[in-house]
């Protein structure tokens, strides 16, 4: 018998397998943000690594899971997505499995980033970091599912996928204070940031990596991530049912 | 096994499928035949839960295709018109994950994949990247994937398109074996008329989203076209006299040739030749023309299925 978990494992391991067979691309993409960090960190004022590193981790997860739909575009064209849809795989498993394939390598990368930054004075707490990654995973599953939905909506017109993905991703990042603090921005910007669920996730990550677990930041982050996760799965399942 | 009522699918202003009533009993092998754009794939995609009908209902393997999608999916196999295997994957991996998707354990999935790789002649390519396989090898991989869970009901959308004659024959044999062994119900679409003719005991002709004929190939041909006997004579005068001798058959004469439209021509011909010889004007040559499904299609729609070589153009596109 299958369950949502075995179905997700099936989808996830199918997606991950080509990467494992050709690990060079993973290694390359994992090193990229380290280079970024290496160039950026020296410009930062003292002690801001603590603020900056969680932001980098969130950013690379975000980039990765927003691409969930891009592999799908090709599989929609060739017919292999259709083949998967006819199997009894549970629909959410198709979404979660594909999103996880993007997220898991990014978590490996997060570990790498942390390991590299600790000697330079980055402090982190295990328990907090684990809770942080769970929250981030929920958010990314939702975003991955939305990316999946976008791919379904833009089949036969790939440009639409890329246009929408790029148009939404950067404002989402900037309006969450991932790379630069929002506090000093104008009022309208701060108001927009308040409406951005990612803001709460980033805040939660920062306080969790600091080891502050039982805070309102954690709670809000969790709520925002769960909401995005649920929204993504709902939209994705609906799109699969209705898509021609 | 399948029961549809008024099954309809409209894409914006295209009536892809326009009110199909279809009943398929367990164990049947049915071929859907029709020109490009007739609505064959759209019909299969509704029956396999891939797209919701605009109107009408369909029950497949005992369950409604809209309300009980999962139940339907658990009981059917589908080999689509495209390629089912991911291009960056390896064939064997895809077979195993397909097996897992249908709930096979890891061991069973592996064993089953190995069996199918063997029987579909994929041993040499199963561990290569799918993108490096030829069109025909990919098609065979698709078929292996559709068979992994040995479903009770199997849908195949143009399974043999892109295969060379030998592999096509292999595939046909495979499908017939499957049926003999497991009593699988099979619904396939094809552009190859001879394939529909030789494999299916029931052919459904679809045009413009509607069923325009539904019967065994033999009966379709007998009912809609029939046989022709063509007799050649040495001289027109003899042909003219033969017309009188064979008046009962209502022959049409054109110069020194007679054409007789009839049923069961091979059985009639010897007697007919005897009659002519006895009457003193024997035929110089004789030919029996049996109808093909294409003739049936031509008769029903006024168009030929062969026009434009539909199947061939697709092969080029896919490669
Ligand atoms: N997703 C879609 N969106 C819009 N129109 C579609 C879609 N799918 C099919 N059609 C149209 O519906 C009609 C029937 O298409 P279908 O694919 O069912 O034909 P077919 O009988 O399988 O043809 P072929 O022999 O070429 O495979 C065609 O006119 C096609 O253009
Ligand atoms: Mg088709």
TrEMBL record, chain A:
Residues annotated as transmembrane: 24-45, 51-74, 103-122, 128-152, 159-182, 217-237
Pfam families per UniProt: ABC2_membrane
Record's keyword terms, sorted: Antibiotic resistance, Cell membrane, Membrane, Transmembrane, Transmembrane helix, Transport
InterPro entries, per the entry: ABC2_TM, ABC2_TM_bact-type, ABC_2_transport, Nod_factor_ABC_transporter
Membrane topology note: Multi-pass membrane protein
Subcellular location, record wording: Cell membrane; Membrane
PROSITE patterns recorded: ABC_TM2
Superkingdom of the organism of origin: Bacteria
Annotated ABC transmembrane type-2 domain residues: 16-243
UniProt family annotation: Belongs to the ABC-2 integral membrane protein family.
Descriptive protein name: Transport permease protein
Organism: Paractinoplanes pyxinae
UniProtKB/TrEMBL annotation, chain B:
Membrane topology qualifier: Peripheral membrane protein
Keywords: Antibiotic resistance, ATP-binding, Nucleotide-binding, Transport
Domain ABC transporter span(s) in chain numbering: 2-233
Coiled coil: none
Domain of life: Bacteria
SUPFAM superfamilies: P-loop containing nucleoside triphosphate hydrolases
GO function terms (MF aspect): ATP binding
Subcellular location per the Swiss-Prot or TrEMBL entry: Cell membrane
Protein name in the entry: ATP-binding cassette domain-containing protein
């Amino acid at each position: 018998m299958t369950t949502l978990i075995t179905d997700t494992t099936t989808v996830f391991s199918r997606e991950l397998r080509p990467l494992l067979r050709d690990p060079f691309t993973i290694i390359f993409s994992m090193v990229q943000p380290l280079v970024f960090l290496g160039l950026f960190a020296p410009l930062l004022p003292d002690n801001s690594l603590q603020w900056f590193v969680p932001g980098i981790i969130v950013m690379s997860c975000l980039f990765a899971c927003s691409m969930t739909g891009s592999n799908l575009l090709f599989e929609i064209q060739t017919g292999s997505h259709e083949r998967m849809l006819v199997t009894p795989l549970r629909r959410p498993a198709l979404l979660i499995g594909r999103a996880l394939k993007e997220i898991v390598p990014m978590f490996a990368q997060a570990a790498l980033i942390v390991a590299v930054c600790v000697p330079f004075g980055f402090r982190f707490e295990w328990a907090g970091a684990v809770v942080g990654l769970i929250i981030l995973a929920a958010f990314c599953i939702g975003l991955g599912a939305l990316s999946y939905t976008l791919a379904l909506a833009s089949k036969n017109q790939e440009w639409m996928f890329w246009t929408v993905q790029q148009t939404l991703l950067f404002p989402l990042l900037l309006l969450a204070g991932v790379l630069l603090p929002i506090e000093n921005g104008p009022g309208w910007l701060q108001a927009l940031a308040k409406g951005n669920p990612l803001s709460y996730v980033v805040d939660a990550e920062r306080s969790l990596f600091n080891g502050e677990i039982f805070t309102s930041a954690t709670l809000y982050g969790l709520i925002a991530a769960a909401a995005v996760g649920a929204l993504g799965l709902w939209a994705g399942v609906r799109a699969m049912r209705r898509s021609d | 096994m399948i029961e549809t009522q008024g099954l309809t699918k409209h894409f914006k202003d295209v009536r892809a499928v326009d009110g199909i009533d279809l009943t398929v009993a367990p164990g049947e092998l049915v071929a859907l035949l029709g020109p490009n754009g007739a609505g064959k794939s759209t019909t299969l995609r509704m029956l396999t839960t891939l797209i919701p009908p605009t109107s009408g209902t369909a029950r497949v393997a005992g369950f409604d295709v809209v309300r009980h999608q999962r139940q339907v999916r658990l009981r059917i196999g589908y080999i689509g018109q495209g390629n089912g295997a991911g291009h960056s994957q390896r064939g064997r991996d895809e077979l195993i994950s397909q097996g897992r998707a249908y709930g096979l354990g890891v061991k069973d999935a592996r064993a089953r994949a190995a069996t199918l790789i063997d029987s579909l002649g994929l041993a040499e390519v199963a561990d290569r990247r799918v993108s490096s396989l030829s069109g025909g090898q990919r098609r065979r991989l698709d078929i292996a994937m559709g068979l992994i869970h040995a479903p009770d009901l199997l849908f195949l959308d143009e399974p043999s398109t892109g295969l060379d004659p030998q592999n096509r024959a292999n595939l046909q044999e495979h499908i017939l074996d499957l049926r003999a062994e497991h009593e699988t119900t099979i619904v396939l679409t094809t552009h190859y008329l001879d394939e529909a003719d030789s494999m299916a005991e029931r052919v459904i002709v679809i045009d413009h989203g509607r069923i325009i004929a539904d019967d065994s190939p033999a009966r379709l041909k007998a009912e809609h076209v029939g046989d022709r006997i063509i007799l050649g004579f040495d001289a027109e005068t003899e042909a003219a006299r033969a017309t009188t001798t064979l008046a009962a058959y209502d022959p049409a004469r054109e110069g020194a040739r007679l054409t007789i439209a009839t049923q069961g021509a091979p059985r009639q011909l010897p007697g007919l030749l005897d009659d002519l010889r006895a009457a003193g004007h024997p035929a110089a040559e004789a030919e029996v023309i049996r109808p093909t499904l294409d003739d049936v299609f031509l008769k029903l729609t006024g168009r030929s299925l062969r026009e434009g070589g539909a199947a061939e153009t697709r092969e080029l596109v896919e490669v």
